[in-house]
User: Fold these one by one.
Assistant:
Number 1:
Amino acid sequence: MSKAWTFEDNLNTDEIIPGRFNITIDPLELAKNVFCEIKPDYAKNVKPGDVIVGGQNFGCGSSREHAPIAIKGSQAKCVIAASYARIFFRNAVNIGLPILECPEAAADITEGDDVDVNLATGEIFNRTNGHQYQARPLPEFVLKIAEAGGIVNFLKEHDIQELMK
Amino acid sequence: MGTLIEEIFSRKAGRPVRAGEILLLDVDYIMSHDNTTPLAIKAFRDIGKPIHDKNRIVLHLDHAYPAPNVLAAENHRKIIDFVREQELPHFHHQGVCHQVMIEEGYITPGAIVIGADSHSNTYGAMGAFGAGLGSTEIAVAWVTGKCWFKVPETIRIELTGKAQSGVYAKDVMIYIAGMMGMDGGTYRSVEFGGDYIENLPMNERIVFPNMSTEIGAKCGLIAADEVTLEYLRTQTPAQGTYEMIRPVNPRYERVIQIDVSQLAPQVSCHPDVDHVKPLEEVVGLDVHEVYIGTCTNARYEDIEIVANMLKGKKVNPFTRVIVTPASERIYKKAMKNGLIEILLEAGCTVTGTGCGACIGRHGGILAAGERALTTMNRNFIGRMGSPQAEIYLASPATAAATALAGKIADPRKIGEQESGN
């Protein structure tokens, strides 16, 4: 099963990973303290493939990439939120953390629900209550970055101009 | 034709652009600091391509400088080695990155500057586009000289009237944050204008774009005018000719009018920047630390306000009062003009420049159960140390009044006592 871990609106980067832990860029080290103040049991109990579910303005605050890296490092499959703070959105795309925008799922999913996500189609299925949701489509150039597994990998193979073609 | 951001982006794109378009634009400067550069270096190595233009890269050590622990020192080492290896010409460690970017003349009207720091919005005070991004995109810009942007819709905030005595730009911006909320400007360009803004000096203007980050804005902009150009000519090495780009028949998503003359001093209360109350409502709360620093409010004029209020007095002995000038240039001027001595005589601790206590690494960390009143822009839980501490945000004047009382205090009342009322 893929367990849903739910978070409030305006979840900020300090709540994802407090600034004092950002002395490392190792995803697994960061993951040890991810959500440590607001959900102290997360880091211990998260299973690979679990799903983070946020509300509005997910990831607001600092520009620190440590926040999406810490989530990715915890082996969560993806984030589903009603909306994202803009730098978090860019950072998640760039480092290859899958993020889905779906207000309906964000409002309906409760902590502990068993949630199945198809990243390719954006379909989200809540096995616990039987509800199905459809995430918003991502812009084409964002999909290009996602397909490459992040912007670094994209640039290894392509010129930056190809993003816009 | 367009909003200020459409006008700025149109000049860079070489054609008229409209909100909603996605552009790949050349960037003028690419800023990062000791917190974000190590990750950028890692991404740069992973990409495996050479730097596009060394002159556009500006690196700072400010977030944990001087190093408070071994890991921070290792980060600095990594960055210094990289600067030498790549022979990068723009390397600074004389204060908070955003202040130094402005002082050193990197930020000019119409420039496009990206920074691996969320408060890169600050550059909008000079009529430049400034926006925060993550480290990986900084590395991408190092090797390509470019960055993608979606042209944002614009919210215009029209500020009119003259502020009452004791009310500063910080109070007005805190009021705006309370009114709009933390996501009130998400993905938007927030344009600050009106006769209140036009009459403000540069040091006060900077507060608005700086804290546009706190309402989620992509950028916060103030159109360049004579005040901007005069500042560049007299205070920075930027001695070129700059166009005063202005909005032309703009279509705004929303226009908000605020009569500044009606506002009292404001405070952002624990635990959210948009949890805003008029100062009167929180006067009297015990304060264990007053921190005057950061890219928001530690310029010379801010320190001058504080020094004028503390002159010949003593701060509360049980409240730690810490002053961290935003840059060495500010520090030197404050020293030359006797402000540092006044602060020390009053019982303040004056630290070296940098981000200091604002990110909870060093220079004023809070214990559980403590309350700080600071001139910072952000009061997230745990930001200054213990997650059981509370952070209140206010103007330098409110901070100085609070430092004297050891409780949140009204700077207007301190003035009254002095004049014998």
Note: Confidence is low (pLDDT under 50) at residues 417-421 of chain B.
Number 2:
Amino acid sequence: MKKSIIQIKGVKKAYKNVEVLKGVDFEVEQGGIFALLGSNGTGKTTMIRIMATLLKADEGSIVINGFDIKKNPRGIRDSISLTGQFAAIDEILTGRENLQMIAKLRHLKNPKEVANELINRFGMTEAADRRVATYSGGMKRRIDIAMSLAGNPKIIFLDEPSTGLDPEARLEVWKIVQELSASGTTVFLTTQYLEEAEQLADKIAILHGGKIIALDTLEGLKKLFPPAKVEYVEKQPTLEEIFLTIIGKKEAI
Amino acid sequence: MESTNKYFLKDMGVMFGRSMRHISRSMDTIITVCITPIAMMLLFVYVFGGAIQTGTGNYVNYLLPGILLMAIGSGIAYVAYRLFIDKSRGIFERFHSMPIARSTVLWGHVLTSLISNGISVVVIILVALLMGFRSSAGILEWLAVFGILAIFTLALTWIAVIAGLAAKTPDGAGAFSYPIIFLPFISSAFVPTNTMPKAVRAFAENQPVTPIVEAIRNLLANKPVGNNIWVALGWCIAITVVAYIFAMRNYKKL
């Protein structure tokens, strides 16, 4: 087993009298892609906000990259980066200025070069000097994720990274996530799309009723079911496949 | 904590840079802020002014301080709006999950407010000069005027912070500023208070706008300011302190 970089034990959180998290336990291995799967309103965002030091848990212990959240939240903030559900970008600034701002706030020595490098990596050279207000949804998501990468944090939290994106932009986000993981960054993402977890994650945790009810690899989870039977079914193309073929972007996968 | 303080100035610098870009790219908001007070000034000077007996020769001189306060009152609506946008877009969350000095996020907005309102004030003074405003004040008096206006802006800005953090819609964020914009009407800003009915007069003479207006008017006319300046400063500082405490309390809850 690989070294674990996030350790969560017995985390509870209630809003007023509604208990959202009722004792959540899990560990995340370094360098992998970990998906927290659950329906809307099961507390995925609450869990991510707690880990990102934005919200305090009522009970339980959280250790990220060796830092205890109670003793050293700043150590955690140094190790992580959060990309929330909605693109958190300053729309009055240009993409480049947004990247430079984040690089400066991470106290990096060469914010300009960091911004340039991210612009190249994300293929945004043309758009970089336009104001973000003029960007499409997919481009905003791209710059949003790029901002999270400034300073190469060890762990990236992505809260529903593909919600509200068109299929093309979603595939692009998936590609970015896979590249991140390949470069050694630990990715923790929440999603309500089963397909997304299936495509991306090394480990999948299912959050339901305030607890983690299953945590395994996709293969492991599949074993929970009876062995697959062989059946012959005519394979119809999905609308997504048709759409992508027509617009000729299929190679993006 | 130690390392947070180490970066305070650096982070403040970044926030300040962001603010300046916001101001320079939204000069239209400064025009919007200035238009109503300038229209009021034209209306009062060229329409009502002839009938208003202030006991001073130059009505523009009499009017200007109240107009400046009005402009600041409408300027801070944008502070609340900008804060609301940062909160609702998740920009606060992004900043707060980063290793920065947290309070700089708010102070950046406060600085933006001071500078953009400062620009509005200068624009309105220039228009007033065209309309015949003349002052015999020296440098010290002008500094005192800008000092009072800055503290007044600060007081209203912290109220705007509370409104921006509490708002549920962008329109709601700015709504609190309307009563503030109209406060100068029930004061000595446009007409002397001695013709008002008793109850209105009592309110007018004991609300913050009157002593602030009187202090600025006397400073600009190079007359002794008497107690007014202390009452004016007292109001501004008291509002600043109370609003700051509430604003910070709400901010920490985010």
Note: Residues 167-182 of chain A form the longest helix (16 residues).
